[in-house]
Each structure stands twice: as structure tokens, then as C-alpha cells.
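FAQ
Q: What does a multi-component entry look like?
A: The components come first, one per line:
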Amino acid sequence: LQDWITPNEKFYVRCHFPVPTIEAKTWRLRVEGEVESPLALTYDQLREMPSRTITATVECAGNGRSFLQPKVKGVAWDIGAVGNAEWTGVLLRDVLQRARVKRPAIEAILEGVDKGELKEDRRPNGEINFARSLPLHKATYDVLLAYAMNGEALTAAHGFPLRAIVPGWFGMASVKWLHRVVLTPNAFTGYYQTIDYAYWTGDAELPELKPITAMQLKAQIARPAPNEQLPANTPYRVHGAAWVGAGEIGRVEISADEGITWSLAKLLGNSVKNAWRFWEYQWKTPAQSGSYTLMARAVDSHGRMQQRTRVPNHGPYIVDHWLPIEFTVR
Ligand SMILES: Nc1nc2c(c(=O)[nH]1)N[C@H]1C(S)=C(S)[C@@H](COP(=O)(O)O)O[C@H]1N2
Ligand SMILES: [Mo]
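Then the predicted structure of the entire assembly, as C-alpha cells:
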């Protein structure tokens, strides 16, 4: 959260299986299922297609999990599982057009090369690959198949040779080490679609498991960092980022009294589609030494506000309530 574009070496890495070693020469991107002409594209063929560069913020659905009480299962991320980068590649839409999607297709399943055996109680036998699906309207709208990140070829950890970038959606949708796209006439119900990265919707009389999709409205404080020590009675620049899966940040507010009163932070730069917005707030640290908290909350351009408490049905994911950042003053 220091730089608006997260440097590659600072961008968080989340992998469910060991990072696969892939030779660009022998690797292929296969497009199959409900298509007129199945494809097996080489790395060079993809690089020869018209390229696109987009800026997109990617947040892991488990970002902020360490704030949850009681503790939940999963990687105990603090606030670092989010980054913003410039991604270059080809539009999935252009690849699908070449393959000529047939009418019955409703989703595109994106599969990674990486695989392994799961340890959870509810699991299929044997090894499985990481795979997620996208509804066709999203797949043919703005999804990028990226081979470069901030102007450099993807590193192995970030998905070399090719990964999806699904703008506005949580990270699990942006499948790394992509090697297969399957067009399917049915809703995909794979492990990472229904068991993991899914939540119960509580708004229906008949609760249903739904795959996690769009990132939610959220403001995050970068400084002070959790447990930082600040000097007393001193001007201090509180700053951070705010983002939302669909829409624009309208304003960001800061509270130093656990959410009773709020002050307006200043939005920095311009609003960039699918990218986080940086903000700052000139504060004076308390005169008394002790433990303190600050909270930030975002409001979108339609006036919708980030909530004090989160949806309990989101379980170990989508940590989008007002996060109290604890620090000390001395
Ligand atoms: N093939 C594959 N793709 C994947 C994953 C994975 O384990 N395997 N992890 C997903 C998750 S949960 C996230 S948050 C992002 C993280 O991308 P990054 O490691 O480049 O930050 O990749 C997604 N794509
Ligand atoms: Mo994630």
C-alpha cells in the first residue's frame, strides 16, 4: 500500500499447490468443450495477438482474515493480500472468438496446471487442478489473459506463462498457470467453486451456496501499520487505499473513536476503473501515551457505505467490515 502500482516483488503470492515449472516452448493454452474449433495456442501465438494493458487491483478473498473473531480456518492474512498492477495480455474474448463458442455454453472453466491432493474432510479422491469458472458474460467482457505484470514477464509464482486477470473479482478467479479453458453448458461445481471460495446467501428463504465473485467496498489503512509505535502529539499522515469490485469510490472517512465520529479523508489522484484509490488524512497523534485504534470506511459514488459488521455467512472470506488498526502512542 506504499505505491499505487505494487512492485512485482512486493505483490502478495497465494498458491494452493506447489508452483509448477512450465516451459513456454511446450506449454499450450487449450480451448475446448462447447466450441466450433478447439484451439491449442502456443505462447508465441498468444503474444502475436492484439495486446491490451489494464490496471487492476487484485485482493485475496481471505485478506484481513486475522481480524476475525473467533479465529477461522485459512491463511491468517493481515492486510497485505491485495495489490494493484498493470497487466498485459490478450482479451479472453478474442481467444473465445477464435474458438467460436457454441450456443449451449454458459460458462468458461479456467484450469491451472498446478495440482495436488487436498487434506480437507470433503474432498475428491486423488489430485485435482486449481479451477474456477466464469459466466460467459464476464468471460467475454473484460477478462484478460495476462503474460506480463508491470511490464515484465510473469514470474513463476504469479502464474508464468499465462494467467487470467478478472477485473473487479476476488483473486481466486484470476487463475494462474492457465492451460485449459473449457466451455460448458452447465454451471461448474468444482471444488474451488462450491466447497472452497463459496458462501451461503442468507437473503433467500432457501439458503444456497454461491461462488464468491466481486470484491466488496473496502478502505484499508496502510499507515499506521498494525502495532506501529507513534510519537505523541505529532502531525501524522494517515494513508491507505480503498477499492470496490464494481463502481467508484465516493469518499473515505476516518474514525479515531471506534466509529462514533468520522472525518473526511482526502482522495488522491484520479479514479481509475478496476484500480484502488489512494487517500490520506492529516492527523495529530494523541497527547497521552497508550493504545489506540483508527478505522477507515469507504463510501461509493452512489452513497453505499462499507458496514460496521460483516455478513456472517461470508465465513472465512470477504473481510469487508470496518477494521480497527491498533497501535501505540508514546
Ligand atoms: N492456478 C492457480 N491459480 C490461482 C491460485 C492457485 O492456487 N492456483 N490462487 C488464487 C488465489 S486464491 C489468489 S488470491 C490469486 C493470487 O494471485 P497472486 O499469487 O499472483 O497474488 O491467485 C489465484 N489464482
Ligand atoms: Mo485468494
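Q: Is there any commentary attached?
A: Sometimes. For this entry: The radius of gyration is 21 Å.
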